[in-house]
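User: Can you fold this complex?
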Amino acid sequence: MSTFDTPIGRALTDRVERKGNIRLPLPGRDKLLPFLVPVAIIAVWQLASSAGWISSRIMPSPADVAVAFWSTTATGQLPHDILVSAGRAFGGLLVGGSIGFLLGIANGVSKISEQLTDTTLQMLRTIPHLAMIPLVILWFGIGEESKLFLTSLGVLFPIYLNTYHGVRNVDRDLIEMGRVYGMRSWTLFRKVIFPGALPSIFVGLRYALGIMWLTLIVSESIAASSGIGHMANNAREFMMTDIVVLALVIYAILGKLADVVARALERRALKWNPVYQK
Amino acid sequence: MTIIAHERFQGAADEFEYESDRATPGRTRAATITLRALEKSFGGNRVLRGINLHIPAGQFVAVIGKSGCGKSTLLRILMGLDEPTSGELHFENADGADAQGNARIVFQEPRLLPWLSVAKNVAVGLGDGVDKGAALGEAEAVLAEVQLVEKANEWPARLSGGQRQRVALARALVSKPGVLALDEPLGALDALTRISMQELLNRVWRELGFTAVLVTHDVSEAVHLADRVIVLEEGRIALDLAIPYPHPRRHGNPALAELEGRLLAAILGTETAQ
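Assistant: Here's the predicted assembly.
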């Protein structure tokens, strides 16, 4: 027994047991596999740049981007811009998300509230919120308000729609059970309606995170004096492609991080759901 | 019209007076249920037509009848889920106090909250004003009663159908109700699970002594569990039959089988069926 009790030994015995189903004898294979494609792309990209197939004026090499990362970090510009951008993004998520969440709950629970506001919200939802940029610049200039307004507007609707949908789809039988067992409105909300709507609210949250970054990138490129978007736009004027690409990489990492956090929260909050049980 | 209804009600009360004599000290929490000229219409459709019924404290009553005879509506009105169109409904404790809030129900589906552990689901039955630790302690005690204490910290999704229904029963019993309403609670279970659930229901009823109202399709189940079987037909009480045999009852008892035959004949309207 103990002879085979090593990672490779286990993989070998596994292979014997699963006849013909060849497995890579690597521990954590499932964790490494998703990174295979990005690493390969970067390797090919570096190779092409080093060989001179791609002009650095069109596309910098990954090494150049790494150097740009170090130099901007050393001057403190990059950490500052990241903080500014992340602050705007989550500020907008907080404001727009809260409004969307509260409206979704209110319209899911109350018929009067739904009749009063749902049609208006559905109408506003169809306007691409980025089409508001000219108006927003006229209203707020390029101050913080313009970014906060646009990201809030962007995240409001996915969170509203999914919260509303989630509340409306809570099992009526469970609500009836709660009433029979003497739950008053607040307890009923806390114990039945909110947990029942939570899976749908998380779908809205993850969708909103995507819109949040998108809105921020666009509004920072057009109307900002700081932040990652401004850094990239500024670099464009000086043909500094390495900084432009660095900005893209930072956006990708921030977006992935936000999604990872949202997923972790989801798994934790929904661990009662068989879908999230191992 | 009202006079006739009143007389009929009196008759039913006299007939079952002996039942209340059976009340023992352990049964003091059980409530008496009285319905007078109870009517329920949905639009122009009269679902219940002048129901007069007196259920003494601690009695186990089964209500049977074809689909659409009004038996589920009757139970929903008892539980306050629907309002009667007219008529009266009283729940009384032994001391004469109103006991409507002391009634609990087990639905056909378990209706457990999937995001709460089994023990916390049971604690839902205690309501809000109870200390959390004490509530979980009581919940575990009732779970032991339904032989599920080892599942106290599991998610409901991990349980079998019969186990979930036992949790639902524990949730109904944890507040020591005076009245337990059962809306076809075993209808969705397989035959063997159903028999063991019947044994369990019978045992907790004998131990806790609540008044039980069971709505069921299953005539054999009604005869096996109840002191009294009521057949509803088009919203009226067509038959009110006492089942005067001691509990627990054995499956396959010929006297019960004979009663079962009579009840089936009454429901199906074929008097000659034996």
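The longest helix of chain B spans residues 191-208. The interface with chain A takes residues 79-81, 101, 104-105, 107, 109, 111, 113-116, 124-125, 127-128, 155-157, 171 of chain B (CB under 8 Å).
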